[in-house]
């Protein structure tokens, strides 16, 4: 009986123990619903994170490991949602909680959260307002975010900007009070893939990390370049890899009074690559820029009131050429945005030059000349190109008169082009051109114009945008026929004998040495501005005809060495030495090419061989059937033609010494001919000092009271 009683007690004890274990296990493994106690728990948490909390359910599970689950969590600040999550699970360390009364969260898993980040109008982040030192002991070892979403609104930016990230998977490993390491992936809608990692320091005052973005559409970066870039025609995707350092100013205790920009300093470094990219930058270029592929190193610095955005080591592959260079935008508080571009190019086909985007950077005067030019072949290469200025004035002509506003060096190779106003085509053009501070330097320019060959052209054109002045020297082999055609086309419409000039013909090659110095361009120059021209032309190898008066054949020595000064509508001939055969004629004077065309010329020659003249003027030989001509002519003559209907006036004399003439029209030879013709305005006197026909001697005078009416009086 005793044994049975003891056995019965043991069974009862075992049963009670099993029931206790079963009941305890049920309660330990079964979540406790603490939702009805949330109004007691939530205020402590709200006070710790400085934000309001709403949740639908709160449960606690003891075994197999203690953890808390929150359902439909909503964290708000100033009545705006900062974080929403469908489920939040926090795994606790039981020993620390029981013995140290401290919450040690082994892992925090946030499922399908939605985070709302706002950069407010004062530059501060709403998230930072809840990241103050917590007031409850809490240790957090790991945070895991699954399938999250982040909405970012930048209200500080003019015009605002909005971005949405989805499929956010991230891991945060806290360290210290409010800092953590982080890493993860996300999708920037609509299609960009993001990978990121980094860490925060000094209670979230410093952020140091990296981010990689694949297929970032250029339009998504537009809000931050709105001052420079237009969205019109903006296409292309970028792959971006960036390292960043951000310093965030400490918040004041009363965050509502902290109106300063939260970001104290931002430094971003990285690399961007792209394919098939089109961008419009109206402040620089009139037309969109298209590039097949490229790469750029990015450098962004922000500190207080200063922002610098730089793109260095740029490699841009255009359809016809490649560019290497740098681009920076600077902005300071109270100042205009400043842009600086430096670049070098590979050879650019000249046939495409007018369609290139950078042409709009050129001053209007240069662009106008460019638009009047039709390029056929050849190439041009830019080097050491630099343009700088503020984005408002960089398209203004006056901007390029300032120092360091524009510089470039251009190498031209095998260029062929036609220009309005020129009858022939320029070809085989080579050389270098350099622009600095409104001054253009030409070096080693060679080429062809029609059949003419430019052997060398060098010099400067200074102050092109203000009062252009030129200093050029060159040497050329000129096709006489083409040169004459150009002279006929450019000659003044009311020029004396213009109709007769049309009858002149020329063939052959002349050597020309020329120089030009002084101011050019009537729209820029004053009435006192001067343009000096010098030319040495050797026409010995040229045939020139002006029938019946002139017929100069190849081989006959003919050259001119002249210096001119162009001033307003006047051309002053300082000196013109005309060499004909063994003779030399000197000419000076001026020509006024205004509406009342006028001129004044002084012609001086001594001992000019009559044979040289007869070689150029076959008319008299044919008309009077001269068998022989000889003698010396000296000339000191002033020719004056006033404007309008004023008659031509002559002043000076022409003298023939030791003249000798033989003609079939006279039976005897004329010899010892000494004749002097003196001109007195509109009248003249021919003084015959001696005139011998056969053995007969003559002397006398011929008076011409009015040259224009051909009134003649003889006294022999």
Question: Which short descriptors sum up this protein?
Answer:
716 residues, mainly beta, 39 strands
Describe the structure.
With 716 residues, this protein is mainly beta. Among the domains are: 1-30; 331-463; 498-715, no CATH class. Helix content is 12%, strand content 59%. The protein is built from nine helices and 39 strands. The chain has a 39-stranded mixed beta sheet that branches. A hairpin with a 2-residue loop joins strand 15 and strand 16 (306-317). It starts with a helix and ends with a strand. Mean pLDDT is 80; it is low at 252-260.
Distance between the termini: 195 Å
Mean pLDDT: 80
Number of helices: 9
Radius of gyration using CA atoms only: 48 Å
Principal-axes shape call? rod-shaped
Low-confidence stretches: 252-260
- How would a crystallographer describe the biggest sheet? 39 strands, mixed
Annotation, overall tally of beta strands = 39
Question: Which percent range describes the beta-strand content?
Answer: over 45%
Broad structural category? mainly beta
Share of helix among residues?
10-25%
Q: How would you briefly describe this protein structure?
A:
This protein is mainly beta. Among the domains are: 1-30; 331-463; 498-715, no CATH class.
Give a topology summary:
Layout: H1 2-29, E1 32-33, H2 38-49, E2 52-54, E3 57-61, E4 67-77, E5 80-92, H3 94-99, E6 103-119, E7 138-140, E8 143-154, E9 161-175, E10 179-188, E11 192-201, E12 206-217, H4 218-221, E13 230-248, E14 263-280, E15 289-303, E16 306-317, E17 322-332, E18 338-345, E19 348-349, H5 364-371, E20 373-390, E21 406-419, E22 426-436, E23 439-449, E24 452-462, E25 469-479, H6 480-490, H7 498-501, E26 505-519, E27 530-538, E28 542-546, E29 550-552, E30 558-567, E31 570-580, E32 583-592, E33 598-609, H8 610-616, H9 618-623, E34 626-641, E35 648-663, E36 670-681, E37 683-693, E38 696-706, E39 711-715
């Amino acid at each position: 009986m005793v044994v049975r009683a003891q056995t019965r007690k043991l069974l009862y004890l075992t049963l009670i123990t099993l029931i206790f274990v079963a009941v305890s296990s049920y309660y330990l493994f079964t979540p406790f619903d603490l939702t009805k106690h949330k109004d007691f728990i939530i205020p402590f948490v709200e006070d710790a994170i400085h934000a309001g909390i709403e949740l639908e359910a709160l449960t606690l599970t003891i075994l197999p490991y203690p953890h808390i689950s929150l359902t439909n969590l909503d964290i708000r600040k100033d009545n705006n949602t900062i974080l929403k999550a469908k489920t939040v699970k926090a795994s606790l360390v039981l020993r620390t909680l029981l013995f140290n009364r401290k919450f040690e969260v082994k892992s925090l898993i946030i499922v399908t959260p939605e985070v709302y980040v706002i950069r407010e109008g004062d530059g501060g982040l709403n998230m930072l307002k809840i990241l103050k030192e917590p007031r409850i002991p809490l240790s957090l070892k790991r945070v895991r975010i699954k399938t999250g979403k982040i909405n970012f609104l930048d209200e500080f930016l003019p015009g605002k900007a909005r971005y949405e990230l989805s499929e956010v998977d991230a891991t945060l490993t806290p360290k210290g009070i409010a800092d953590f390491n982080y890493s993860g992936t996300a999708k920037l809608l609509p299609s960009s893939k993001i990978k990121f990692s980094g860490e925060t320091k000094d209670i979230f005052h410093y952020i140091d990390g990296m981010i990689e973005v694949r297929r970032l559409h250029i339009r998504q970066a537009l809000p931050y370049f709105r001052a420079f870039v237009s969205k019109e025609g903006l296409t292309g995707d970028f792959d971006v890899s960036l390292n960043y350092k951000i310093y965030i100013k400490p918040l004041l205790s009363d965050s509502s009074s902290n109106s300063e920009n939260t970001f104290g300093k931002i430094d971003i470094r990285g690399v961007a690559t792209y394919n098939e990219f089109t961008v419009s930058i109206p402040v620089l270029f009139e037309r969109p820029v298209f590039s097949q592929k490229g790469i750029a190193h990015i450098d962004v610095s922000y500190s207080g009131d200063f922002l610098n955005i730089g793109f260095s080591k740029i490699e841009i592959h255009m359809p016809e050429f490649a560019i290497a260079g740098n681009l920076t935008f600077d902005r300071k508080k109270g100042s205009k945005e400043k842009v600086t571009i430096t670049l070098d190019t590979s050879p650019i086909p000249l046939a495409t030059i007018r369609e290139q985007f950078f042409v709009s950077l050129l001053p209007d005067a240069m662009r106008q000349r460019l638009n009047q030019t039709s390029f056929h072949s050849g190439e041009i290469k830019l080097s050491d190109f630099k343009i700088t200025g503020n984005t408002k004035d960089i398209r203004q002509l006056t901007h390029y008169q300032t120092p360091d506003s524009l510089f470039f060096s251009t190498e031209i190779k095998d260029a062929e082009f036609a220009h309005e106003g020129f009858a022939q085509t320029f070809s085989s053009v080579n050389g270098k051109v350099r622009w600095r501070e409104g001054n253009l330097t030409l070096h080693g320019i060679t080429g062809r114009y029609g059949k003419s060959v430019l052997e060398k052209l060098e010099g400067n054109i200074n102050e092109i945008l203000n009062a252009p002045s030129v200093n050029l020297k060159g040497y050329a082999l000129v096709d006489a026929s083409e040169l004459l055609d150009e002279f006929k086309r450019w000659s003044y419409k009311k020029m004396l004998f213009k109709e007769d000039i049309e009858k002149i013909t020329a063939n052959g090659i002349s050597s020309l040495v020329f120089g030009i110095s002084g101011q050019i361009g009537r729209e820029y120059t004053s009435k006192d501005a001067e343009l000096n021209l010098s030319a040495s032309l050797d026409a010995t190898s040229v045939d020139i005809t002006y029938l019946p008066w002139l017929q100069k054949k190849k081989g006959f020595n003919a050259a001119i060495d002249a210096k001119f000064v162009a001033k307003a509508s006047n051309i002053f001939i300082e000196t013109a030495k005309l060499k004909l055969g063994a003779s030399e004629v000197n000419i000076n004077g001026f020509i006024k090419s205004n509406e009342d065309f006028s001129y004044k010329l002084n012609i001086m020659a001594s001992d000019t061989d009559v044979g040289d003249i007869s070689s150029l003027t076959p008319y008299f030989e044919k008309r009077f059937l001269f068998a022989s001509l000889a003698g010396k002519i000296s000339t000191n003559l002033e020719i004056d033609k006033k404007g309008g209907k004023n008659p031509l006036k002559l002043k000076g004399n022409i003298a023939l010494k030791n003249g000798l003439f033989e003609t079939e029209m006279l039976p005897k030879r004329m010899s010892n001919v000494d004749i002097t013709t003196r001109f007195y305005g509109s009248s003249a006197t021919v003084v015959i000092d001696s005139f011998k026909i056969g053995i007969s001697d003559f002397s006398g005078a011929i008076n011409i009271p009015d040259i224009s009416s051909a009134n003649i009086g003889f006294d022999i």
